[in-house]
Amino acid sequence: MKKKIYSLLIAGGLASPSVAQFAFPVNIDTAWSVKTIWMPKSPLKSQTIFVGGQDIVQTTATYTSPAGSTVAKQWHDYIGFVKDNSTSGDLGWAVVNHEMVSADPKIGDGGGMTMFKLKKNTNSDTLSVVTQTLTDGRAGKFFNVDFVNTVGETGMNCGGITTPSGRMWTAEEWMQTSNAAIFSGGSGFKDTSNFIIGTTTPAGFPGFNGKSIKRYLNLNWMVEINPLTAKAVRKQYNWGRAGWEGGVAMADNKTVYLFEDGAPGIFAKFVATTANDYTSGQLYVYKHDAPTFWIPIENNFDTLAILNKVAVRRGASMFNRLEWGAQSNGKIYITETGRDVQTYNTGNNVNGKISPTLVQGYKTRYLIKNSVVFPGTDAAAADSVRAGKFFDYYGRVNEFDPATNIIRSYIEGGPLSASANSQSTTAYPPIHFSNPDGLDFMTIGTKTYMIIQEDLNGVNWNRMPAGYPNTNCETYLLDMSIASPTYSNLIRITACPPGAEITGATMISSNVMLLNSQHPSSSNTFPYNNSLTYAISGFNNMFTSNGELIKDTMSESFNVYPNPTSREINLNKEMDAAIYNISGQRLKVVRDTKTINVSDLTPGIYFIQNTEGKSVKFIVE
Amino acid sequence: MKSKIYIIAFTFISILFFYSFSFIKKSALEKVTEHYILRNTNFKNAITQFNQKVKDLPFTKENIKIIRLEYFKLRTSFKKWEYLSEFIDPGFVKEYINGAPLQKIEANSFGPNIIEPKGLQVIDELLFSEDVLQSKESIILALNDMTRVLDDQTLLKIYDRDVFIAARQGLVRLYTLGVTGFDTPGSLNGLVDSKHVIEAMAEDIPNYLTQLKNKTLSDSTNILLQKTLSYLSLHQNFEKFDRLEFLMNYINPLYKNLYEVHIQFGFELPEEIMSKTQPVNYASTNMFDANFLKTIYYNRIPKDFNNNQTVELGRQLFYDPIFSKNNQRSCASCHNPNKGFTDQLPTSVAFGEKGFLKRNAQTLINAIYSEKYFHDLRAKSFEDQTEHVITSAEEFNTTTTEILEKMNTSKTYQNLFNKTFKNSDSSIQFKYIQFALSAYVSSLQGLNSAFDKYVRGESKTISKSVKNGYNLFMGKAACGTCHYAPIFNGTVPPYFKESESEVLGVAKNPYSKKQTLDDDEGRGNSLLKERVEFYKYSFKTPTVRNIEYSYPYMHNGAYKTLEDVMEFYNKGGGKGLKIDVPTQTLGDDKLNLSKSEISDVILFMKSLTDTIKLTGKPNNLPKFENNEILNSRKIGGVY
Description:
The complex is a heterodimer.
Chain A: H1 2-14, E1 36-39, E2 45-51, E3 56-59, E4 68-71, E5 76-83, E6 92-98, E7 112-120, E8 127-130, E9 132-133, E10 139-140, E11 142-144, E12 160-162, E13 168-170, H2 179-183, E14 195-196, E15 212-213, E16 223-226, E17 231-235, E18 244-249, E19 255-260, E20 267-274, E21 277-286, E22 294-297, H3 301-304, H4 307-313, E23 322-328, E24 331-336, H5 356-370, H6 378-386, E25 396-401, E26 406-412, E27 436-444, E28 447-454, E29 475-479, E30 491-493, E31 501-509, E32 512-518, E33 532-537, E34 560-563, E35 568-581, E36 586-597, E37 604-610, E38 615-620
Parallel strand pairs in A: 1-38, 3-11
Antiparallel strand pairs in A: 2-33, 3-4, 5-6, 6-7, 7-8, 7-11, 9-10, 12-13, 13-16, 14-15, 16-17, 18-19, 19-20, 20-21, 21-22, 23-24, 24-25, 25-26, 27-28, 28-29, 29-30, 31-32, 32-33, 34-35, 35-36, 35-37, 37-38
Chain B: H1 2-11, H2 28-56, H3 61-88, H4 90-97, E1 104-105, E2 114-115, H5 120-127, H6 136-143, H7 146-152, H8 160-178, H9 190-209, H10 215-234, H11 243-265, H12 270-273, H13 295-298, H14 308-319, H15 331-334, H16 382-391, H17 400-407, H18 411-421, H19 430-442, H20 450-455, H21 464-474, E3 501-503, E4 538-540, H22 562-570, H23 573-576, H24 595-606, H25 628-631
Antiparallel strand pairs in B: 1-2, 3-4
Helix pairs in contact in B: 2-3, 2-6, 2-7, 2-9, 3-4, 3-8, 3-9, 5-6, 8-9, 8-11, 9-10, 10-11, 14-19, 16-19, 21-24
């Protein structure tokens, strides 16, 4: 065995790396390694808080079911969090949106939300769910937010808004178009009778009370909820009905920005007349090429009910699936997740006629990416769409400045770009940033980091390396002090379950992040196959006290160093390497990479060998 | 072709298998990479040329011949491109190049957005349809994006291991989707196609074989590649092609040899480059091995609990009527192990014996090999489906909380769960019930039938009728284009990650004079996100293994015998029988199977029966210390 390694060494030393690919031996003699490095335990700790489909929620009397309890719905998306400023010592109330649509005689048909209160252990960052008794008498740990008896069911619950003062709205992006669709053969909404605004408690909505509407028209509004009582307050009819995914509320307690997940998707603004009263005010949709930037929308129910269509007709800016937003330093950041399909066939018929929404979409994008209004005619914009220039599988994060009303791309997805001729091959990039969805910020010391969460739209277009047919959504941190950031500035936090959409990340205390792993469609094992709300803590160990990311020190003689946070081993340059277990059996081979993910290795002794045949012992704690 | 290989063989001399001196000469991988790039260019050029012909020529009878010729050239370059490129980016090929010619819903979208099919399968169908003269614009539309997307695609670097993983995957694809005619619904060009796939492999693999120390393996692999090519050259009649012989003498041996070559080189294996378990067991060397697919991919049980102890607990739960509100029904009530885990009723008896359910109970043997469960594919995992049965008023008519309350009054049960799941929390949790039931159903693998054993060479003979039946199943009768080998269900090869459903146009009563469509809308009336026109009347494609036991047939159990089912397909499904079916996905052409051919297909399907060692019942059920009534509950339930 030893002999083989020596011969291998010589051969490896002679081979030109561009010519021969190094085959790592299946077994090595482990007595051979001398250097040892340590992979300490991750400074980040994760803790499962709430599992959809498993944890029990307390329910109100709904339909014909008496108040009681049942299993929570699934598919966690947004997390709203309101701090408890009282003397209770508890951290605050968290509310999780369920994107799952299902009939449920106790929770209510359609979507849903679950509320729970968290307490932080004083000596550590461990969380516990507090047992509560609500004003309506429900007692327990998890509570279903009552929509049925308050404002009528929701279609599904995806993104949301929490104001600085603790008010909360939930959004329902899946646009409904008929009662038959929401009835869904009985598995969706059992009750498809007309809904009359204002007949539920608390009383409906000023100006629209008594109006009888088709049941499906009562869906796709932003809905205000009271997290403390676990009851909905009102459907926000005056903000318009659209495929809303998320929004941002400003500190003036008057202005709210809203983002639509659609293609075309609109960007809207509501300004309340009086602070803290969102039931009266003015709604606008954004139009980048209008002098005032904002087109006012009249407060008329029939107009509001088809807001997207009205906006399209009035030439509003068209986005390619807006998702979540968050604010930092006076600016609003909005994820635009991108879409594969639209470019080629949708709205683009054989005769080459391009739909006006795509033309407007192309012009909007042109402004976002180039910071100037598209100089050409609509026909020229249509030609660009036809030539495939609207193709957008990467997406981006946009920045909107409320002071100037200007929107621009803040960071673009990347990096694999279309190659003019395919005469060569490219190694898979270490960072491949696509389809951003969830968005938030965290501040450590004096530094602010954007938290970006991917939700891959597919695995094609090299979104995954060769042979990896499952999506792997990643969460990135971006240092906001970097001017003109690109994907290469992203810091990957890999402490997330694989395969699922990571969403809802929100800091609930200086050192604790709450996040969701939602509708994992791939084959993860329990609990990562369920929608899951969990906490990550220990960020203070990842950064210096003033917020600088702690750089790992490189071990001297061997250019290998561990990154305990991301559970990766870093190499000093891009190379091929293999990992062996203590018996010398090969476990893993990586190619053309600077990092080796070792998050799946159980604690123990391992060996890493590079292409020069050198090996180093490393210990996972 | 042969001469070329010999030249390569002699120019490549190396001392160590992983190392070549080639500062001047190219490595095997470099050669393959050159082919990979060249094939991409050739494919793009062929699309451009075909596109030009389609655009330039008026669609007349004479011109169609020219266009078809150009199309076959395009297919040649496509099939040579396919095995490596589809491995590198399978989603891309599915989306733009060679996806099924059916509408689908955009994944991960903001609404039920329907994507129109595009790519080669659409073109194939149009170009060989009766309406070909009117299909110019549709073909242009289907071609619209292909060149552009190929231009936009970045060619990712390939590695030695990729060549072997991709080639083996390519063999499974070729056998299940190529020679069956699946991806050439119009031209049935699958056999010519297959030859081109093997040609590409025969250009690539020998570059490695010359460096292999094991000359016997090197030679036999080379010979196999050449023999497969000549077999495909000599046998090009779609109906007569002996798919069994091709499997046993060419595909399986090649599949095995490529694995051995991969191992000999010591190139990394799939599990060393990705941490997630994949459905196909790479180490399996025969498509009909009992372990060809891994059940641990399909179930969601944590590694620590995927063991026999969990299976045994699951077996007890399966037979325990504690799961129903009245403690009289168990899983075995409708999935009776003595009846192939079905109840052999058209539709199952409802709770309280008040009538019947809407749909037929499916067999549980080999049921785990699915992406989604139930006839309407509404459950995303086997674990998820338990809750549907428990809460359905017509089935167990109870709730998970009610079951847990009941079960947690039994110390014996709690101890059993604690022992199995090493659980410190002494109360039983629902997830553990799901794991146990899922482990038990995962253990119901019936893949050692007479036919499997014959294919694996474990038995030497099988009747001529069965052989003929298999060849019809995989060829003329087109069964194998939906019931994919080797499980013969709707889990799509070569990835085995996606479950399909089909609109067949099943009759409400096939024995009535005027047949009408069964009014169950299936998948189109189930999940809110799948409520689209083309999923109406669509049902999951079940396995045909153990079909001998799983009568009566179809989702409504309306078809009493296999002869009746075969007759239905032979006439072109619902549409062929003049039933009004809005979006039938089954071809409505007559299959023209003779009586004896039908009988052979049935005999083949019966040769797939295997229930051995799967029907063991527990001797007793866990005791309830304080509840005598529950202790008298019957193993397997009362009805």
